[in-house]
């Protein structure tokens, strides 16, 4: 199972890339495999300031729908609009072109609450 | 949880396995969209051995089946199959099924896996005429070989002329080196093909030969996820979603298999319902905007008033839009009617359409 060591993770199977005061967020390779073919990523919260664990969007696979939870508190500044026409990028490149949002996080202390790659691997039994 | 005789093969093929109706079943191998396309364009093989099989025999077999089934089984000939449902006494449906007639006094019933015990008890309870019943569900396997290339791909496996088996007819013949296999021109995909019934001890050989014979035709194993998108594009009902113990066959659009030319369980009440007209109907709908309808989403009118509920929904891989089945009040059920599906508290416009959604 692909779990890059430069990323942080959540128990909801999202990954977080921290760069300065910005975080890029997507779903993990494990999550895309469990969801199956992804056909629609809906994020209508760009510009919103939200709390950690709030729902910022939804990912629809052919067989199932799943909420996306914000891993850190802060402002959502960008949605990966290429997913509008190519949602399958989440399946083919979950940690790269399949990224979902970028945010400015407001409370750096929350980063310590995220899982590292070893803890996430343990969570998914890998 | 039970395995089918092929569960180990699915695992070797890398299938994602899920519990379904008490069985460890393959839900997908390479991905639902690719598998869906394989069946629409080439040929795919499904292990659907979880389905139940009951053999009903003896001089009173027809009487029993005419009593428990809604369709008129006296109309089918030897070697013919018939889609059917079993109405309950309170206006709903016990199960939908296929009845195969081998000869007078010998019928095979193929029922949904999740209903095997319920159906067996139901039919046994109504077997006051002493028909002989055998539950073969644990001994028989079922492979569905579906797709436009199924006939061509499988012809080398049998001496029977596959192209001569008419839709909803079957032969008992040699297949993949096994004698007395049921080759049935039926399916749940709308893309043509066969369903093959054989013993558990024979099915691994059949599977391997089917994969080998289909190799040059692009055959792939197909999971339950694509089985669902394929059937939904055709508007076929799924028991537990679109029909259940509380939905009447007339509401569900199954009037064509509900024959009042004979008496059956609850036929008096259903006849009355037919004369008076149903209050709600199962309809197909397509979303006009982006979104995917799901089981249990609410259906509303333009004023936001509840008019029904979604029973099945998906993104249709062949059509690339959201489609679904659902019950709506009869006044909203005509093709062309505008309805709205509540998707996460947002009404999304949809149009009532005639099924099938996929027209080949």
Automatic annotation (TrEMBL), chain A:
Coiled-coil ranges per UniProt: none
Cofactor: (R)-lipoate
Source superkingdom: Bacteria
List of residues that carry N6-lipoyllysine: 63
A Pfam family the protein falls into: GCV_H
Keyword Metal-binding: no
UniProt remark on cofactor binding: Binds 1 lipoyl cofactor covalently.
GO CC annotation, single: glycine cleavage complex
Domain Lipoyl-binding positions: 22-104
Tagged with keyword Disulfide bond: no
GO biological process: glycine decarboxylation via glycine cleavage system; protein lipoylation
Keywords: Lipoyl
Task of the protein: The glycine cleavage system catalyzes the degradation of glycine. The H protein shuttles the methylamine group of glycine from the P protein to the T protein.
Family to which the UniProt record says this protein belongs: Belongs to the GcvH family.
Subunit text: The glycine cleavage system is composed of four proteins: P, T, L and H.
NCBIfam families, A to Z: gcvH, PRK01202.1
Protein name stated in the entry: Glycine cleavage system H protein
Taxonomic path: Bacteria, Pseudomonadati, Bacteroidota, Flavobacteriia, Flavobacteriales
Automatic annotation (TrEMBL), chain B:
Domain Aminomethyltransferase C-terminal residue range list: 280-359
Residues given in the record as substrate binding sites: 195
Catalytic activity: N(6)-[(R)-S(8)-aminomethyldihydrolipoyl]-L-lysyl-[protein] + (6S)-5,6,7,8-tetrahydrofolate = N(6)-[(R)-dihydrolipoyl]-L-lysyl-[protein] + (6R)-5,10-methylene-5,6,7,8-tetrahydrofolate + NH4(+)
EC number(s) given by UniProt: 2.1.2.10
Keywords in alphabetical order: Aminotransferase, Transferase
The GCVT N-terminal domain, residue ranges: 8-262
SUPFAM superfamilies named in the record: Aminomethyltransferase beta-barrel domain (SSF101790), Folate-binding domain (SSF103025)
GO terms assigned for molecular function: aminomethyltransferase activity; transaminase activity
GO biological-process terms attached to the record: glycine decarboxylation via glycine cleavage system
InterPro entries assigned: GcvT, GcvT/YgfZ/DmdA, GcvT/YgfZ_C, GcvT_bac, GcvT_C, GCVT_N, TrmE/GcvT-like
GO cellular component: cytosol; glycine cleavage complex
Description of how the protein assembles with itself and partners: The glycine cleavage system is composed of four proteins: P, T, L and H.
Function: The glycine cleavage system catalyzes the degradation of glycine.
Similarity remark: Belongs to the GcvT family.
Protein name as it appears in the record: Aminomethyltransferase
The species this protein was found in: Aequorivita aquimaris
The gene coding this protein: gcvT
């Amino acid at each position: 199972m692909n779990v890059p060591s430069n990323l942080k993770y959540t128990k909801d199977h999202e990954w977080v890339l921290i760069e300065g005061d910005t975080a890029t967020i997507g779903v993990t390779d494990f999550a895309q495999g469990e969801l199956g073919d992804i056909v629609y990523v809906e994020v209508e919260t760009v510009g919103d300031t939200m709390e950690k664990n709030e729902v910022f969007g939804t990912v629809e696979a052919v067989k199932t729908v799943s909420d996306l939870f914000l891993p850190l508190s802060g402002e959502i500044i960008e949605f990966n609009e290429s997913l509008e026409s190519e949602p399958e990028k989440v399946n083919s490149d979950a940690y790269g072109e399949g990224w979902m949002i970028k945010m400015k996080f407001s409370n750096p202390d929350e980063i310590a609450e995220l899982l590292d790659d070893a803890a996430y691997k343990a969570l998914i039994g890998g | 949880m039970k395995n089918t005789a092929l569960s180990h093969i699915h695992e070797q093929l890398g299938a994602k396995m899920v519990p379904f109706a008490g069985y460890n079943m393959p839900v997908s191998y390479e991905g639902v969209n690719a598998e869906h396309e394989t069946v629409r364009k080439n040929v795919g093989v499904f292990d659907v051995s979880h389905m139940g099989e009951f053999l009903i025999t003896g001089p009173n077999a027809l009487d029993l089946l005419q009593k428990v089934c809604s369709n008129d089984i006296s109309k089918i000939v030897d070697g013919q199959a018939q889609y059917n449902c079993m109405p309950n006494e309170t206006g709903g449906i016990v199960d939908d099924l296929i009845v195969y007639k081998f000869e007078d006094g010998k019928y095979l019933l193929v029922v949904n896996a999740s209903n095997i015990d319920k159906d067996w008890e139901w039919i046994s309870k109504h077997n006051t005429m002493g028909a002989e019943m055998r539950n073969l569900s644990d001994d028989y396997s079922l492979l569905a070989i579906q797709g436009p290339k199924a006939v061509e791909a499988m012809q080398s496996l049998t001496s029977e002329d596959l192209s001569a088996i008419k839709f909803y007819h079957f032969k008992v013949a040699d297949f993949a080196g096994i004698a007395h296999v049921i080759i049935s021109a039926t399916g749940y995909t709308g893309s043509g093909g066969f369903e093959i019934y054989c013993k558990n001890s024979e099915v691994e050989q059949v599977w391997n030969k089917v994969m080998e014979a289909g190799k040059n035709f692009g055959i792939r194993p197909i999971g339950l996820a694509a089985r669902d998108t394929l059937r939904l594009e055709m508007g076929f009902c799924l028991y537990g979603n679109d029909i259940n113990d509380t939905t009447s066959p007339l509401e569900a659009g199954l009037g064509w298999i509900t024959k009042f030319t004979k008496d059956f369980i609850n036929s008096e009440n259903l006849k009355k319902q037919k004369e008076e007209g149903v209050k709600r109907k199962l309809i197909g709908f397509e979303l006009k905007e982006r979104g995917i309808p799901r089981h249990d989403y609410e259906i509303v009118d333009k004023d936001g008033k509840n008019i029904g509920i979604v029973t099945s929904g998906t993104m249709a891989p062949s059509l690339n839009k959201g489609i679904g089945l659902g019950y709506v009040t009869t006044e909203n059920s005509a093709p062309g009617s505008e309805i709205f599906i509540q998707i996460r508290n947002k009404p999304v416009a949809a149009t009532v359409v005639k099924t099938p959604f996929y027209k080949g």
